[in-house]
Structures are given as structure tokens and as C-alpha cells.
Amino acid sequence: MASFHVPLKRMVDDSYDIQIGRNLFDDLVSDLKKGLTPGATRYALITDSNVEKFYANGLMTKLDEAGFRTDLFVMPAGETHKTRETKISLEDQMLEAGFGRDSAVIALGGGVVSDLGGYLAGTFGRGIPFINYSTTLLSAADASVGGKTAVDTPHATNLIGLFNQPAKVYIDIECWQTLPVREIRSGLAETVKHACLAEKEFFLWLEENITKICSGEEALLDDEACEHIAYKNCEIKYTVVKKDEKESNLRQVLNLGHTAGRAFETLCGYTYTHGECVAIGMVVQIEIALEKGLVTQEERDRTIALLQKCGLPVSVPSGTSLEDLVVKMRTDKKARSGKIRFVIQDGIGAMKSFEGGSYSLPLDEDYILSILKKMA
Length: 376
Ligand SMILES: NC(=O)c1ccc[n+]([C@@H]2O[C@H](COP(=O)([O-])OP(=O)(O)OC[C@H]3O[C@@H](n4cnc5c(N)ncnc54)[C@H](O)[C@@H]3O)[C@@H](O)[C@H]2O)c1
Prior knowledge:
The protein is an alpha/beta fold. The chain folds into two domains: 17-178, Rossmann fold (3-Layer(aba) Sandwich); 181-375, Up-down Bundle (Dehydroquinate synthase-like, alpha domain), CATH 1.20.1090. It has 13 helices and twelve strands. The chain has helices at residues 25-33, 49-65, 84-96, 111-123, 137-143, 181-198, 200-209, 223-243, 258-267, 274-291, 297-309, 322-329, 365-375; strands at residues 17-21, 42-48, 69-75, 103-109, 130-134, 148-151, 160-163, 168-172, 214-215, 218-219, 340-343, 360-363. Strands 1-8-5-4-2-3 form a six-stranded parallel beta sheet, with helices on both faces. A two-stranded antiparallel sheet has the order 6-7. The chain has a two-stranded antiparallel sheet with strand order 9-10. α3 packs across α4 and α4 (111-123) crosses α5. The longest helix has 21 residues, at 223-243. Bound molecules: nicotinamide-adenine-dinucleotide. Residues 48, 50-51, 54, 77-79, 82, 109-113, 115, 135-136, 138-139, 142-143, 146, 148, 157-158, 175, 178-179, 183, 186, 274 line the site of nicotinamide-adenine-dinucleotide.
């Protein structure tokens, strides 16, 4: 008998650029010409059935004109299609079209397309490069940056996936013009989350300026305000990600509002948008923070008022089984040894670090239920 040790230490440079601007197709083509995806000779442009109508032809034409061999793959729009089944279907279409390891993926769309497209790219041919071209405020605020890629299953959201960093992220603010107002609001929920977890000054700015982006039923999309939130969201997110890419501890803070939010998202069958669920989850965690003396009544009220100003829901909708909601929280990815964990604000603009330095706190299910009942 013999035994071998295989010394395989990994030195990885996963750095990438994020470009924020308007109408960035030419920049993408120019970057490809400069070798953004070394070794790629074919491109799979993956998008969804809504984004296709607005933007796919424009990008396909530019890529064609520049001589990049590109095929378009369209998945049905919506969270209910961010599944293993959709991934398999796209993979089969790509294989049938002759795609191999010398390919790259361009994910054109919101968080659903980038989560699924990035996961697909991470496993296709054991890994090919991918580019995120973000078309929603929510993916600009959160999903397009950070390298978390995944699909949902009937049991849980985003639990099957990979950490896989893109070659580059393009955040095209001009695309927000075609977004339904509900999707604008959804992106603002992640924006409020970032302010609450990282920067009081940004929170104050949002209190003053958020209506320039969306006021009630109307999306105003003031140029300067949009640029500011795109910049601030990226800055806050990548500052955390670069310190803890694989979420060993600090990165959990980006999950603010997500323990209850994601649980509600699956429980309601994705009838609420991701941002709406995050808004509800933000309120659950701030009620916990208030009960634990981590925020004042005024800080709690101002946070809820800001979410309301964006037109976001701030309570668990009536008719929701609170017991089922708690049970769903068990599938949250922060759960350890069957115990539900929350990340919680420490005032506005900071996060609480608990015993042992962990940013997440295990909580009893009865305690969570009592908070939910109090909210109801
Ligand atoms: N990976 C991460 O770190 C991370 C972070 C936050 C959220 N997410 C994921 O992101 C997803 C939510 O992202 P989303 O809100 O962008 O969802 P989405 O991709 O489903 O987009 C929302 C809707 O807007 C449409 N759309 C997209 N761009 C458009 C445009 N410019 N004009 C008109 N319509 C457009 C889409 O077809 C869809 O109907 C969820 O799956 C969530 O889990 C991931």
C-alpha cells in the first residue's frame, strides 16, 4: 500500500472591475477586443424574456458587427424560473449549439439572470468566464456584485450555487428607464439595507433624496440621484466582499433583513418581489434590534418610514402563517446546527457583532414567533 499527498495550494486573483454608466454596450465590446475573456472564441448571451425585448437585439448587433460569434439564449422571466431546470435547459441548448470550454457567458438582465448565468458559467465545461451586464436597480444595488451565484429550489432560495466572480460588471443606469416602478422600489429596499448596515450619512441622504428616484406610484429617476445610489451601493457592497469573499463571518451583514425576507419570499411563492421581501425582513430584524436595545424607538421608526417612502411593504401580510414563516427560516443559509440566526443593526449605519465576534445571533424559534406576533 502507498499513500500520496497532493500539494495543490491555490493562489487566485479574482479581482474585477465594475463600470457604472449609461449605454455601455460599446464599452463591453471594446473590453472584449482588449481581451476581457482570454481564450473565449464564442459567447452565450443569456437573458430573460422581458429584457430580450428591450436590449438583446442591440447588444447582439454590436457583438456581431465587432466579429464576436454570439448566440442568444432566452430564459423565461421571473424568480420562479431561477431553477435547476432552467439551468439544465440552457446548458443543453448551449451544448447542442456546440459551445465548449472556449466560450464565455454574458448575463444580460437583473439578479435572476446574473445568479443563474453566473452559476451556469461556473459549472459549464468546469468553468468558463462570465460577464454581468446589469439592467435592474436591484442587481446594480446588490446581485451583480460579489460573485454569489445560485438557483432556487422548492425548499429554499439560493442554496444551490457557487461563489464565482465575474470578469467584469457593467451597471447600465439607462436601463432603469424601462423598469416597472415596482422593480425600482424593489431595488430601493436593498439600497436602504446598505445604508442601515454601513453608513448613517447615506441613510440621511436617502431620507432627503429618495423621492427623487421614486415617489409613490411614480418613478422619477433623477439622473444625479440614480448615479449616487449606484455608486454608494457598489462601494458598500464591495468593501464588505473584499474583506470576506466566502462569507466566513463579516459578509453575513449583507444579509440584513434576509433571514425573514427570504423565508417569506419562498412562503409566498414569489408573488412578492425580492426587494419587497427584504423590506419586510428589514422590519422584522429592526423589531428584534429594538427589543434587544440595539436601536432606539426613533431609529426604528425612521427606518420603517424610509421603507414606506419608497412604497415598500413594512409588515408581514395578513393571512401569512407566522408559524410557517419561522419554519421556513430554518433553511436560511446562516442557520447552523438547526438554529436560526439573524444579523442585526446596531443603531443606523452599523452592525452588531455578538459573542465571539460573530455577526449573526442564534435565536429561539419561540422568541422569533413572539416578535412576529407583536408586529402583527
Ligand atoms: N447574488 C447576489 O448577491 C444577490 C443579491 C441580491 C439579490 N439576488 C437575487 O437577485 C434576484 C432579484 O433581482 P432582480 O430584482 O433584478 O430580479 P429580475 O432579474 O427577476 O428582474 C426583475 C424583473 O424586471 C425585468 N427586467 C429586468 N431588467 C429590465 C429592464 N431594464 N427593463 C424592463 N424590465 C426589466 C425582469 O425580466 C424581471 O421581470 C433574486 O433572485 C435574488 O435572489 C442575488
